[in-house]
Amino acid sequence: MSARDQILGKIRQSLGRDGPVDAATAETLASRLRSRPRGIIPERSKGDAATLIQAFRERAETVEATVADVASMEDVPDSLADYLAQHNLPSEVKAAPHPDLQAMDWSRRPTLTVGYGRTQGEDLISVTRAFAGIAETGTMMLLAGPDGPTTLNFLPENHIVVLKRSEIVGAYEDAWDRLRDQIGPDGMLSRVVNLITGPSRTGDIEQTIELGAHGPLRLHILLVNDG
């Protein structure tokens, strides 16, 4: 028996389901998965699209992230290059091999050097593509996979994320629903879903907040206007 089987076996046993599952129980479980029950949704997660976008921005900035408005996906290279110049950062970046990022015309800013793939910690700047923004807490949902290496989210000192305005939702439940809708009833969730709120921080030492202790020192969000 593998470690995975042992863990799942203990969970089933604690739930009283370590034996054969009868048809009624199986239907109850399937119905719960289909219905997607929700907890209490806070009022701060509600509103029209413009309200949620503004709430996401304000809450992301409250936790030390920075947000820049970008007119279109075509303008991402310009906004990225300007950000690097403003912070006196090098122009070499490691980008996730996401179709949206690979389709960009990086040559419009010839000073940029863009590579794709995972990082082992040698890259100072990463560029990734978010799946959703959550207005409730200014959090971003990023999916791990071939087009979204998790190492890019945590190892580089500077993390730059491309997020479309239309991808901002209200509550966490809305983000999970969006993901389930995309994969369909028979699809598989991403092996890892990262929820990122602001740059890395810790208050372990004398209760003083330090940024970049366990991950990126800076988190910059390129908020793209996609209509």
Uncertain parts: none
The biggest beta sheet is recorded as: 6 strands, parallel
Order of strands side by side in the largest beta sheet?
1-12-7-4-2-3
Number of helices: 7
Q: Give the end-to-end Cα distance, rounded to a whole number of Å.
A: 52 Å
Identify the overall geometry: globular
Write the layout of secondary structure elements.
Blueprint: H1 3-14, H2 23-35, H3 49-62, E1 66-70, H4 76-86, E2 92-95, H5 99-102, E3 113-116, E4 125-129, E5 132-134, E6 139-143, H6 151-154, E7 158-164, E8 168-169, H7 172-183, E9 193-196, E10 201-202, E11 210-211, E12 218-224
Parallel strand pairs: 1-12, 2-3, 2-4, 4-7, 5-8, 7-12
Antiparallel strand pairs: 5-6, 6-9, 10-11
Which labels suit this protein?
single chain, four-stranded mixed sheet, 12 strands, alpha/beta, about 20% strand, Rossmann fold, about 230 residues, about 30% helix, six-stranded parallel sheet
What does this structure look like?
- The protein is an alpha/beta fold.
- It folds into 2 domains: about 1-35, no CATH class; about 45-225, Rossmann fold, CATH 3.40.50.
- Helices cover about 30% and strands about 20% of the residues.
- The chain has 7 helices and 12 strands.
- It has a 6-stranded parallel β-sheet, sandwiched between helices. A 4-stranded mixed β-sheet has the order 8-5-6-9. A two-stranded antiparallel ribbon has the order 10-11.
- The radius of gyration is 20 Å and the shape is globular.
